Amino acid sequence: MELEWGIWGHNLSKILKEYSLPQTAYAQVGNQRVEDQFCFTSDTLFKYVNERIGSIYATDSALNKYMILPNDNDIVCTCNTCKAVGNTTTDAAPAVFNFLNSLARNHQELSFFTTAYVTVREIPKFKAATNVGIFYSTIHIQKGIPIEETKDFKDFEYDIKKWRNYVDNVFIWDYTVNFDNYFDIYPSIKVTQKNLKLYKKLGVNGVFLHGSEYDYSTFQDLKTTLFAKLLWDTTINVDQEINTYFHENFPKKLAGALTNYYTFIDNTFFLNKEELGIYSGINKSVKKYLDPKVFFSFYNEFDTNTEKNKYDKDFLKIATALTFLKLEIMRDNGVGTYGFATLDSENQIIVKNETILLLDRLTAFSRASNLKTYNEVNYTIEDYIKSWRQNIFRYHKRKHFFYKKPFKVLSKLDEDYKNIKTLNDAAFGLKDYNTNWLICSVDNLVLKIDKEEIKQSKKITLSFLQDTKHAIFYPSVIEILDTNYKIIKRLKLPSEDENIGTKEVSIDLPTKFDDEQLPNTFIVNIIRSNVVGKNALACDEIIFN
């Protein structure tokens, strides 16, 4: 990309930062100008972008491709000129292609691209210049399954044919990593191979595989090597190439272990029709390909090579990622064989010694390999380890009388969050909303519980997440009610400004000395924040102890 692209991705803001743009260069929404998006019929915006392209190309004539994208949001300019070229409140394609055509006329020796993504989805009513092209983003259909085998195939095929009739160059912007967890192996090589064959059959001109980011994703060197070979020849033997790669780059014993495991999971990933999107929690990875029994066995075999490879940076990066993955599987499993803890005869959670050792190993491996973050939003490994330690300190020897006990949810649950077992499985959530959180955005969370199930308890302890970027907020009120909805206990929670964080809230249960007693069946009512607009509640473990 560095050799051919003068502008790549969502970088208009970066190349324009040296200019003082007037308000008319930004999108108009209603009567307001919004600086989060551009107005693509703005003469000033065109002047500066046109000027900057000229100066980039003059500096290096090999930079002959330019990507012009709206900012990564769903804002569309509906000023008079944008509406005149065809913009609607949801479709920015007319103004964007009008902008591209103008650049294409001024620089006929260059190629200009945008993406079929978010607000650029429909074909304008006017023709595109011959040196204008499109990248079609698979972000909504890339779910770890060959596209031909999904319900989206017919729509995808129609879209590609539609764009090929409109522009000469149709490229695919594809995805090969889990952006919520770069350490998720996401072994999509055979899936990608089948998709590349499809793209070729549909007449696509080229493919950009969006994989590893600026830090590290697990086995990124292997995936880069094989993807590069597949882009030249879609028919290569993937299993054979995996074997060749590992044996050319690692000692024989280690190479054998890596080859056997990676071949197994790549085939499992390909054959299993469970969806695994590019923003997914560890539980979905486990369902797709990451069988705990197989992974734990492989981890132990891999670990026997540590002493001989402890100064090898590539080995240490893999060790960091695999140790992180093992901890994630244990966090998701909670209590049991593959969990981070056991439950003793007195209903006490006992944290395993192995958990402590793995956290120490993750600390050592990440420092030695100089890996600091593990996902798209730059969550740090250091903070991950710190959060783990805080949670297991709280959990160790804590009684959990509600563990896997039956209860009912009286409120309406979100379509994608119906697994109520999350609330009392002893598996804790961290700052990633995808793992171990029950998210409620359509209703408050209302539980019906039998006193008999928690009769030894003295208090209820609840865990919550706040992630303002995803409109998740701490609750405003927690109530304990009788079945007639009469209040027995009520706790009002203060609002907090933190953008992302977790917290526990405890409420003492009524004793025989209190005026209001806990009835045989009672209700726990967790009321969402009163923030204006879209807001959700994320609840993790509910512990009666």
TrEMBL record:
Top-level taxon: Bacteria
Pfam families: DUF4838
Protein name stated in the entry: DUF4838 domain-containing protein
Originating organism: Polaribacter glomeratus
Taxonomic placement: Bacteria, Pseudomonadati, Bacteroidota, Flavobacteriia, Flavobacteriales
